[in-house]
Amino acid sequence: MNVSVIGTGYVGLVTSVCLAERGHRVVCVDVDQAKVEQINRGLPPIYERGLEELLRRNIGVRLEATTDIHNAIGQTELSLIAVGTPFDGRRIDLTYIKSAAEQIGTALRTKAGYHLVAVKSTVVPGTTDHVVLPLLETMSGKKAGVDFGVGMNPEFLTEGEAVEDFMHPDRIVIGGIDKVSQDLQAALYEDFPDVQIIRTNNKTAEMIKYASNALLATLISFSNELGNLCAALGGVDIVDVMTGVHSSRYFTMRLPNGDCYTPLITSFLGAGCGFGGSCLPKDVKALVAHGGQIDVPMHLLNAVLQINERQTVRVLDLVKKHFPSLHRVQVAILGLAFRPDTNDMRESPAIPIIQSLLQEGASIRAYDPVANPEAENIFSGTEIRFCGSLREAVEGAQAVVLITRWEEFKQLPDLLADATPQPVVVDGRRMLDKHAFARYEGIGLS
Ligand code: UDX
Prior knowledge:
The chain is α/β, with parallel strands linked by helices. It has helices at residues 10-21, 33-40, 51-58, 69-74, 95-110, 127-140, 162-167, 179-188, 202-233, 238-246, 280-293, 299-320, 350-359, 372-378, 390-394, 412-416, and strands at residues 2-6, 25-29, 63-66, 78-81, 115-119, 148-152, 171-176, 196-200, 253-254, 260-261, 330-334, 363-367, 385-386, 399-402, 424-427, 440-442. 41% of the residues lie in helices and 15% in strands.
């Protein structure tokens, strides 16, 4: 198919590149000229595992980037809207969605033939039907369901694993105002065999995305609340508690051959420094705000957010346990992005943790295998030393604070074996062996 993707951020670019890889002809559109030029040179503006290779293979073949949305709509039969939908402090900010819908509508005015517009961005239930559709009709002077179709096709991409997730999806949700709108989206995914396609109306598709993210956020805050209780109780480690919980047949399946299979959901049932990234925090906030607006207070999800915000303070408290003052204390921050394999720093727990440490006068060195440049932008003007290696970051550190679950950080016991004096290791992810260090602190442990 001929597809246009509006917005080439994390979601839009991965979608464009992967659809091209699957054989579609894709034009991706962005307002940012520099980004467009970079993509056309085969260089992804973001880091995602496997993305560069696929981009290089498809750019100039089945994929091109442009700032000309009018032309892109004219030469394609289906458009996916993948612009950002940030939280503006009070509610979801639909500025970019509206702008994209207006521009697509304007282009449809002069385009001959049927066109399908599907929203891929995460939007609160009702947005596609009550915001996007009317704008398309007004700007095009055409009728939805007759001249063009309207759909909602949420993404379920985990940052860092987005290419793999797109190429091998666990589900494809297709919302639409009618069967044609759904059929055209289904055709887009014809070459993704063995995947369950769920057809719904647009509002349900929008809600499936929020429900999925809200559940994961809830499991994380549930684990953190229990972890904080374990720490206060003393003599109970949340890791041991969760091992017991995971062993339930609800979470661990015993296969006929005797092997055990532990589903990935258990990775959300563990205490740590909290959830971050461009999706979970903003989506839960948007849902809470949306519920409030229609007089449905979201008590549980509100608590999920509050617990999450306090988790970074707990990491700091663990550092402070060992230093009466943090003034000039050498602190190594390991990991800057909210999860491994991405350089997305949005809402990373590293940001408030580093800010507080700086305020208290600590000397910070930081290392992330891929996110150093993004963090340097955020913390420009501060005296953080960004290090090129794990070894450099921890050398001479008095405290080591682990924030991101990079596999590489498992080398820490070996790297610190001969350090004198031994630094305090604060494990914000509970991924290290607590017995492997002379001075270890972890979330959910007293
Ligand atoms: C996406 C989704 O859109 C969001 O709803 C979902 O919850 C998470 O992922 P993301 O890809 O992270 O957002 O957004 P971002 O990285 O901010 O990229 C958006 C892109 O759209 C930017 O490159 C921006 O320049 C572009 N844009 C924005 C347009 O091309 N046109 C606009 O009108 C606005």
